[in-house]
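Deliverable D2.4 — example input (structure tokens):
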């Protein structure tokens, strides 16, 4: 048993050589660019189409400042997390799970369970959300082709669930590298299709009137601004960086930084172009999904239907990759207990439990997606309570604990300043998300055919 595991006390991890979750799911064979593919899929998703909506609560100047600040803070946060992981690896304790790292550095059992709870909430929430949104994409395409068709949203969710069950059988996180490379190209694809559609809509004779004014009252402006800030913060979150770094072949030192640079290069081109083009066209009338602004409920589409249809197809395909990435933590937890590392990864002893457990997990996620198509509101609460601690607070605390910057150093004050500011943002984001959940409650209907924004 290594030194790190000894710190876990009653919840200690088994030896790495006997840990099927580590040996199978979190197999360490990847190159730095593979980590870049995984990280890009975890961050650069269809949620970037929400950025024009976030800008409408901030305006041009504050929107640019907040988007840039969030990007800088999250890059810095993930960089610090990578340094902490490298620090532990050099000390002979390579951590491949967020919960192990937190328990080791803080030397506290409750941190182990705290991270498990938050990660489970985030990963399950995103898995449910990916299935729900993929089902909605299919329904949108079906409604265009068969306006009077009888199929409902839950039928499409069931179809997506079946596909996800098949895809979930990829045995390792590393085996998703080609899928996540495709996901990277898909993010460019639908982003630039949407940007082109926005430019087309903004220069056409049917261009909507532009109004960039904010809320009329000061209190409404403040509330909308904090809601927008929490949206942008959640878009940059991932919560699984240690597990992504675990896929790197040892030694992992320094490799994750290259993956981060790749990811944030993609972020720069996609996030800014989507935010600017969408807000430029629709201003304070921007929808929470800019595709819905381009395809209003009344009147014709504001851009060629084939462009919007292709963008929806790209979004649909990427949602499968996102669902797979965020399921990996659940799969490694299950296989750590159910698989026998002494037998082959494809042996009958390990294959049958893998098929059963992963299929059940996806079915449960699909069931909740169909039953609760207002899950976006619940996910917003989970995001504010989950992403903020894991991505904006814990990395700073972990760095301060391991590298011990002096009070005279800029790092000490920057890290503590970020902790204070984003703890406040998380609380305000949770409050605003709960408020929206309550306001939307009257629209909730179990197994509804419509998704509540």
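Example output (designed residues):
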């Amino acid at each position: 048993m290594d030194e790190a595991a000894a710190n876990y006390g009653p919840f200690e991890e088994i030896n790495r050589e006997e840990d099927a979750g580590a040996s199978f799911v979190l197999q360490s064979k990847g190159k730095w660019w593979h980590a870049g593919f995984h990280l890009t899929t975890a961050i650069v998703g269809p949620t970037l189409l929400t950025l024009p909506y976030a800008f409408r609560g901030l305006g041009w100047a504050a929107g640019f400042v907040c988007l840039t600040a969030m990007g800088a803070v999250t890059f810095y946060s993930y960089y610090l997390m990578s340094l902490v992981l490298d620090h532990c690896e050099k000390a002979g304790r390579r951590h491949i799970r967020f919960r192990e790292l937190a328990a080791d550095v803080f030397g506290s059992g409750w941190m182990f369970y705290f991270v498990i709870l938050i990660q489970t909430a985030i990963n399950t929430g995103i898995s449910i959300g990916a299935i729900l949104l993929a089902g909605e994409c299919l329904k949108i395409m079906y409604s265009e082709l068969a306006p009077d068709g009888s199929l409902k949203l839950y039928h499409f969710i069931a179809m997506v669930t079946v596909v996800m069950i098949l895809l979930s059988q990829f045995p390792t996180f590393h085996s998703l590298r080609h899928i996540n490379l495709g996901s990277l190209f898909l993010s460019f694809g639908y982003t630039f299709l949407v940007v082109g559609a926005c430019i087309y809509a903004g220069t056409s004779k049917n261009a909507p009137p532009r109004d960039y004014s904010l809320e009329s009252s000061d209190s409404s402006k403040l509330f909308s601004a904090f809601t927008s800030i929490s949206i942008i913060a959640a878009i940059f979150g991932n919560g699984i960086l240690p597990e992504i770094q675990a896929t790197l072949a040892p030694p992992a030192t320094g490799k994750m930084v290259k993956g981060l640079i790749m990811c944030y290069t993609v972020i720069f081109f996609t996030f800014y172009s989507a935010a600017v083009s969408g807000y430029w066209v629709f201003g304070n009338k921007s929808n929470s999904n800019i595709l819905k602004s381009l395809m209003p409920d009344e009147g014709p589409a504001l851009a060629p239907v084939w462009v919007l249809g292709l963008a929806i197809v790209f979004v649909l395909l990427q949602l499968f990759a996102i669902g797979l990435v965020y399921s990996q933590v659940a799969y490694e937890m299950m296989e750590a207990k159910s698989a026998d590392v002494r037998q082959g990864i494809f042996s009958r002893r390990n294959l049958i439990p893998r098929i059963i457990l992963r299929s059940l997990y996806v079915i449960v996620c699909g069931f909740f997606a169909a039953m609760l198509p207002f899950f976006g509101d619940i996910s917003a609460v989970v995001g504010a309570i989950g992403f903020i601690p894991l991505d904006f607070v814990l990395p700073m605390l972990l760095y301060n604990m391991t590298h011990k910057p002096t009070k005279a150093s800029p790092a000490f004050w920057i890290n503590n300043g970020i902790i204070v500011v984003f703890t406040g943002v998380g609380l305000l984001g949770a409050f605003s998300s709960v408020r929206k959940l309550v306001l939307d409650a009257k629209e909730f209907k179990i197994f509804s055919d419509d998704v509540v924004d």
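The two ends are 48 Å apart (CA to CA).
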